[in-house]
Amino acid sequence: MQEAAQKASGKSTGTDQAEATTEFREIQDRYKLAQKTFQSLLKIGPGPDRRTVLETACSSTAEFAAFPIKQAEKTFFRHINEHTGIPYILRENVSQPWHKPFLFIQIQLQGDPLPNKLTHAARKELLSERSQMFFILDRVLRCLVDILGLRRDGRGVIAALDVLRSVKAGVWDGNENELLQVDSIGAVKMNKLTEAGIKTIRQLAGLQCYHIERLLSRNPPFGQEMVRKLKGFPLLRIHIDILGPFKEGQHGAATSKLNTLSTNTDTLWMTRIVLGYENEQVPQWKKKSLWTTFVVEGEDGRLVWFWRGSVKKLENDQTMIVCLAVKKGEKLGVVFACETVVGTTIRESFQID
């Protein structure tokens, strides 16, 4: 406990530094990234926002050098940067290899059709590179999550998970195009639903089959098939109780889970965290098993607690008794979401009284 307090307060020992070096090395080995890439990722600053995470993931990745902007693609990528409304534009000349994944991934997540600025052959070649770019970015983002987690940067972990979730889902989390995640719903159908006030998959999942058919001008059994498909969309829920300050001998089973992210001024607060879902059966999206992440962030943006687990573990609820190292009166933020599905995120706050 004393060693943990020294780490968090900046009073690291030689042993602490050696352990951190070993842990960073394990992260690099886990994701099998180039040494140059990993060293560049380590330079990310504290508390990065979503843009910084995406830009760092693209600009730091030596692996993206294999996808240079070709002569036939220059007009295409300049058009994306200047005329498509992507959230994060470049303020420099579009020419670097990392500009390609940075811009291409954004236009894909935007849900808009690709600009008509490529020949058929150039478009085909670009689309053939898409899966490899997304595969690389997935590894890099997961690596960034682990780096920021080891640094106890809660704000950064949340931002990196946000970008990872968006990339895996194919749409930006928090945008009004999350319905595009549903198979058989494209831009036209999404616009019809949006005009009717249906902007989220959770809202769509709450409709009867005949309402869906009426809104989308489709005949049976389209509605029934849609309802059956939407039953697998994860409807997450959380419940948190502060049980009081930790006392030696209390809740013996929890002592093995003591939060080590403490400082000399923190108190350990026993906390009951209950994670679950509202679905009748274990949710499964697009025939794939799901994983969830739960993050607790302190007022100063530090990482207070992190948990990652399969949605299967949430059957009949997952109850954890943990110790959170926080100050009395501190307001904490929590984020609970599926790792790869947009529209599942629950954000709440609670205060230690």
Strand content: 15-25%
- Helices and strands: which structural class? alpha+beta
Task: Specify the CATH class of the largest domain.
Answer: Mainly Alpha
Total of DSSP H or I helical runs spanning 4+ residues: 12
Q: Which sheet architecture does the biggest sheet show?
A: 4 strands, antiparallel
Helix content: 40-55%
Quaternary state of the chains: single chain
The CATH architecture category of the largest domain equals Orthogonal Bundle
As laid out across the biggest beta sheet, the strand order is 4-3-6-7
Q: How would you name the CATH homologous superfamily of the largest domain?
A: Sec63 N-terminal domain-like domain
The total tally of domains equals: 3
List SSEs in N-to-C order.
Answer: HHHHHHHHHHHHEEEEEEE
| First-to-last CA distance | 23 Å
* DSSP strand tally: 7
Q: Report the C-alpha radius of gyration, rounded.
A: 22 Å
Instruction: Name the overall outline.
Output: flat
Q: What is the CATH topology descriptor of the largest domain? A: Sec63 N-terminal domain-like fold
Mean pLDDT: 90
